[in-house]
Design goal:
Distance between the termini: 27 Å
Radius of gyration: 16 Å
Helix content: under 10%
Number of helices: 0
Number of strands: 8
CATH topology: Immunoglobulin-like
CATH architecture: Sandwich
CATH class: Mainly Beta
C-alpha cells in the first residue's frame, strides 16, 4: 500500500469572500506527466482534497498538510507533476473563481490578482 506517499504543505490565504461562501475546497493531484489540459486525469498517480471553513469575516488563512492517497493502479515512482486548485462552496455547490463570471461570489475584488491553480514539476522531475 502506498497511502500518504506524498506530503505537501499548502498555504491558503483568501479574504473578503462573499458571505454565501461557507467553505473552500482545496484539491491537488499528482501525475506521471504534465496533463494535456486543465481537467486531465491521464496518468493520475495520487490525489488529495480538503474543505476549509471560511470564518465569519469571509477569510481563510491556514496552512494545511496534504497527505496524498496513491491511486492503487499507479506506481508512486512515476510521479512527475502536480496541480493544486481551489473552489468556493456556496450552499451545496462548488464554484470555480472566475474574473469573467456573472456571479459576484465567483469574481475577485477589482485589482486583486487571482491565482486559482498552482502547478509544476516535482523536485528533480524536470
Amino acid at each position: 500500500m502506498y497511502a500518504e506517499q506524498f506530503n505537501f504543505t499548502i498555504p491558503v490565504k483568501l479574504d473578503h469572500l462573499m458571505p454565501t461562501v461557507t467553505h473552500v475546497k482545496i484539491e491537488c493531484r499528482i501525475f506521471s506527466a504534465k496533463p494535456a489540459d486543465w481537467l486531465g486525469i491521464t496518468g493520475l498517480v495520487a490525489s488529495w482534497n480538503q474543505n476549509l471553513p471560511v470564518d465569519s469575516n469571509g477569510n481563510v488563512n491556514q496552512t494545511v498538510l496534504a497527505k496524498f492517497d496513491v491511486n492503487p493502479a499507479a506506481n508512486p515512482q512515476d510521479a512527475k507533476y502536480y496541480q493544486c486548485d481551489f473552489r468556493l462552496m456556496v450552499g451545496s455547490y462548488y464554484l470555480w473563481p472566475d474574473p469573467a463570471s456573472t456571479q459576484d461570489v465567483s469574481r475577485p475584488k477589482a485589482g486583486t490578482p487571482l491565482l486559482v491553480k498552482q502547478e509544476g514539476f516535482l523536485p528533480g522531475q524536470h
